[in-house]
Amino acid sequence: MLFNGTHFILTKNENNIAVLDFISPARLMSKAVITELHSLLDGLALEENIKGLVVTSSSDNFAYGADINEFTPLFKGGAGDHLAYTHAAYNKLEDLPFPTITIIKGHCYGGGAEFALSTDFRIGTPTLSVGFPEVKIGILPGMGGTTRMPRLVGLDTSLSWLTSGRNFKADKALKDGFVNGIVDTEHSMAAAIDMINECTDGKRDYQVVRAAKTGKLPLSAYELQMSIAIAKGMIGKAAGPNYPAPMTIVDIIEQSAKLTREDALKNEITGVVERLINTGHSAAMCHVYLADLGIKSKTKKLAGEKTTECAVIGAGIMGGGIAHTNATKGIRVPLKDINQAGLDLGLSTAVNLLEKPVKRGKLNFSKAATALNNIIPTLTNESLKNSDMVIEAVVEDPKVKSIVLKQCEDAAMDNAIIASNTSTISITQLAKSLTRPENFIGIHFFNPVNKMPLVEVIRGKQTSEETVKRAVAYVQQIGKTPIVINDCAGFFVNRILTPYMRAYSNLLAKGADFVFVEKTMKKYGMPMGPAELIDVVGLDTSAHVLELMSQNYSHMPLPENNIVQALVENSLLGQKNGEGFYTWSTDRRGRPVKTLNNKAMELIKPTGKLELTEEEIINALLLPMMFEAKRALNEGIIASEEDADLAMIYGTGFPPFRGGLVYEMNKKEPGQIEQEANDIATLLADEITYTVPEIRA
C-alpha cells in the first residue's frame, strides 16, 4: 500500500499500475480531500516503475462536487487561494509522468467532474450522471472546468454543458466526448488497465491528450467569435443581467482561448472571485441552495405514509389543477363537484394541462392518457370512501367550507386525512365543524398548481403529528416543496403579501407613477410588477385578502383609498375576466398579453403627484413585507429564516439571486432598516405600514 488516508487509498498491483480509490464517505471535494490529494500525489510522483494510474471509487457514486458548506466562509475571503490550491492538486495529477485514467460510476458533479478531467482518459459505467451545476449557485466551474472542458470536448459542447448546469447520462457523456468509453462496472477496471497498457505499448498517445488540455484552443479567430456570439445571444435572452454566472463562463472561456493552462486557470479564479463572488449574488444563491437542501432533509425525516388515492372536492380551475398534478404522479383522483358544469370545468382544466406538453413533444400520448384515466369525475360523495386523502377546494367562504368539510369527513374512511386548500381561513376555525380534527390539516396550493413548486402545509391547534407527516409525504409525492406553517390568518405567504398590496395601493393613491413602479420592481428582480401580480392573483381575491387581514391584524388596516376594492366594484377582476390594471388577451400561441387599462387608470384618482426614486419605491414596497416576515418568525408561524426565504421564492417568485426576503433584510446594517422605515413613513405620512417590529429577535 502506497498511501492509506481518510479520503484516499493508494495501492500498486503486480503489474506496477497504481490504483487510487476515493473512499471519502461524503463524496465531496472538500478542503481536507484536496489536502490529502496533494500529499499522496507528491509521494506517487517519486515512486519508481509506475506504469500508470487508475482513479476509481469503491462507492456506487464517484463524487458529488465541492463541499458547498465550505462556500459561505470562502465567499467572505480566501476563495481565490482555495481555488489556486485545488488547481495545483489537479495539475499534479494531470502532470504525473505516466498515463492516468478515471473510472466514473454513478454521480460525478462539479468539482468531482473537474477532478476526473485532470486525468488523461475517463471510462464511464452505465449508471453515470455527470454535470457542472455551479451556475445554479451563481458561480462557475472554477476547479479547472472552464479551462479543461473546451480543450477536451470542444467549445460549443463545453458552452452548452457549463452554462446550463444540466446533468447528462452515460450515452450523452460518451457522444460529447467527456468519457472515452462506457463499460459495465464489473469490467471497468480491466478496461482501464487495458488502456494503460495501450499507452505504455505505444498504441495510445496520452501525451497528445495532455498537450490539447494544457495548450490553446485550436480555433481560428472567426470560429471563436462565431461560437461566442451565438452563446452570448442565447444566454443573454435566457439568463438576463441578474444571473451573471452563465455569461461570465462564456467571457472567461473566450478570454482564455489563446492562453495555456496556467494563465487560463488564473483567469478562471478572476472570473469566480471578481466577477461573481464580489457581487454578492453567489452568496445569496448559495444560501437558497443550502436552504433548499435543508428543507428536503427536514421534510424527508418528517414524511409519513404515501397517498394512494386523493379525492378533490370542488372541480374548478384550482381543483382541476390539483387533480392534474395528482394524476400525473400516478395517484387515483376522484374529482367531485355539485354540478356537471363544475365537473366539466375541472376536467377541461386537467385536459388542457395534459395537452400542452403532448403538443410540445415533452409528454407522450400514452402517459397523458394514463394520467387522464386516473381522474374519476363524480357528482356524489360515494367515491370518497376509498380515498386516504381528501382535499377540499371549494369557494373561499368559511361557512361553505365548514359544511363541505363535514360532508367529506362523514363520507371518507375514518383514518383519511381531510385537508382544505384554503388560502386564508384559519385551519383551527374550520376544524370546529369536524368530529376528528386531529385528521384535519391545511394543504395550500398556489396558482397555477402545475407550475408553482410551493405548498403550505398548515398545522391547526388539534392537528396530529401523524397527520402532518402524511401531508408532508403527500406533497413530496406529487413533486412539490412542502413548508410546514403554524396556523394564523393568511398563513405565511399571503400574510407577507398583504402589506405589499397595501403599500402599493397607498403609493398609487398618493400619486406614484404607475409605469415607473412596475418597471422598478421588475428591475429589482420580481417576476412581475405589483399591479400585474394583483391582476394574476385576481383583484377580487386580493380585495378579499385585504379585508380578511384587516380584521385579524391591527397593523394591516384597509388602505385609506382602497384602489383594489374600487376596481372590483367596477367589475375589473384582473386576468380572470380580461380587465384589471391591465387589459388581458392572448397571442396566437395562447400566451397572455397585457396592455395598460385606461379604465383602471381613471379609477385610481390620486390625491397628488408623488416623485419617488427607485430606492424609495423598493423600500416602500419591500420593508412592510420584511417586517411581516419577521413578525411571523417571532411568533413561530414558520420554523426558520431559511423556510421563510424559500416560501417567498417558491410561492411568489421573489428573486433567488437576492437570497430571499429575510436574507435581504439581514444584509442591512444595524440601524439601517429603522432609518429607511422612518424616512419612508415620513415621506408617505404612513407610520402604521412602516412600524418596525423586533428585528433582531
From TrEMBL:
Superkingdom of origin organism: Bacteria
Pathway membership, UniProt: Lipid metabolism; fatty acid beta-oxidation
Domain (3-hydroxyacyl-CoA dehydrogenase NAD binding) ranges: 310-488
Domain 3-hydroxyacyl-CoA dehydrogenase C-terminal: residue ranges: 490-584
InterPro entries tied to this protein: 3-OHacyl-CoA_DH_CS (IPR006180), 3-OHacyl-CoA_DH_NAD-bd (IPR006176), 3HC_DH_C (IPR006108), 6-PGluconate_DH-like_C_sf (IPR008927), ClpP/crotonase-like_dom_sf (IPR029045), Enoyl-CoA_hydra/iso (IPR001753), FA_oxidation_alpha_subunit (IPR050136), NAD(P)-bd_dom_sf (IPR036291)
Enzyme Commission code: 4.2.1.17
Family designation: In the N-terminal section; belongs to the enoyl-CoA hydratase/isomerase family.
Protein name according to UniProt: enoyl-CoA hydratase
